[in-house]
Write a structure and sequence with these properties.
Bound molecules: nickel (II) ion
Oligomer: single chain
Strand order of the largest sheet: 1-2-3-4-5-6-7-8
Shape: globular
CATH class: Alpha Beta
Order of helices and strands: EHEHEHEHEHEHEHEHH
Distance between the termini: 16 Å
CATH superfamily: Metal-dependent hydrolases
Number of helices: 9
Helix content: 40-55%
Largest sheet: 8 strands, parallel
Structural class: alpha/beta
């Protein structure tokens, strides 16, 4: 079984002592692909370093809504430069977060639009973070659509109505630990309705550890619990769930030459 963790943060402080060891163990447990998502310039650089060290690790470059408040205009050029690296397979994570509001909302919206435009120009897929900002995220995404290289809403928390609109624009929807939680009724409903060929799986580690390990530090090996949940909700074998979600991620992040072979 080959699993693809489409969203991880091994640059996080919680992995400062043992990132390499955890990544290696995850690989040995069957996680054959990991996308480490950047959330500002520095962590995008760290993601690239990680991708250079491990064959099976890929990177995204972009600035998370929490961090856009500290950007200067010419940082856009830095993001563009990072995207030249062959192992950068997407722009992200970018988006809106009105739950924490760490950056002014106006700045969040402006940098989301700018980075979406960069993705269109470079023909790279986007990784979107959206928390408590469904309406504005949808408005901006629809305004900037179409996206030739597509994109994914990571750790999706919206309704089936919203998912349907995103599917029409060509987006993938990614599910993480929260879909295994007891109170995940709405997200399970979205998963139940989803076409199999648009589902990605992720951990968002070190955050959002799936059941039954909630409370522990998350890592890529736990993506298996999400793959199991997909299998359970869709009524398919776990091998099939693993095969299809891995294939979907390879199709989306097609910039990597290796993924073109599928
Ligand atoms: Ni993330």
């Amino acid at each position: 079984m080959e699993l693809f963790d489409s969203h991880a943060h091994y640059d996080d402080n919680r992995f400062i002592d043992d990132a390499d060891e955890v990544i290696t163990k995850a690989y040995e447990s069957g996680v054959k692909y990991i996308l480490n998502a950047g959330s500002d310039i520095e962590t995008s650089e760290k993601s690239i370093e990680l991708a250079e060290r491990f064959d099976f690790v890929y990177a995204s470059a972009g600035v998370h809504p929490h961090e856009v408040g500290k950007l200067k205009e010419n940082d856009m050029e830095k993001i563009r430069d990072l995207c030249r690296h062959p192992k950068v397979v997407a722009i992200g994570e970018i988006g809106l977060d009105y739950y924490y509001d760490h950056s002014p909302r106006e700045e969040q919206r402006r940098w989301l639009s700018k980075q979406l435009n960069l993705a269109k120009e470079l023909e790279l897929p986007v990784i979107i973070h959206n928390r408590d900002a469904h309406d504005d995220t949808m408005e901006i995404v629809k305004q900037e659509a179409p996206f030739k290289a597509g994109g994914v809403f990571h750790c999706f928390s919206g309704s089936w109505e919203m998912a349907k609109e995103l599917l029409q624009i060509g987006f993938y929807i990614s599910f993480g630990g929260p879909v295994t939680f007891k109170n995940a009724k709405k997200t399970v409903e979205v998963l139940r309705n989803m076409p199999m060929d648009r589902i990605l799986v992720e951990t968002d580690c070190p955050y959002l550890t799936p059941e039954p390990f909630r409370g522990r530090r998350n890592d890529s090996s736990y993506v298996r619990m999400v793959v199991e949940k997909v299998a359970e909700v869709k009524g398919i074998h776990i091998d099939e769930s693993a095969r299809v979600t891995t294939q979907n991620a390879k199709r989306l992040f097609h910039r990597s030459l290796e993924f073109k072979k599928i």
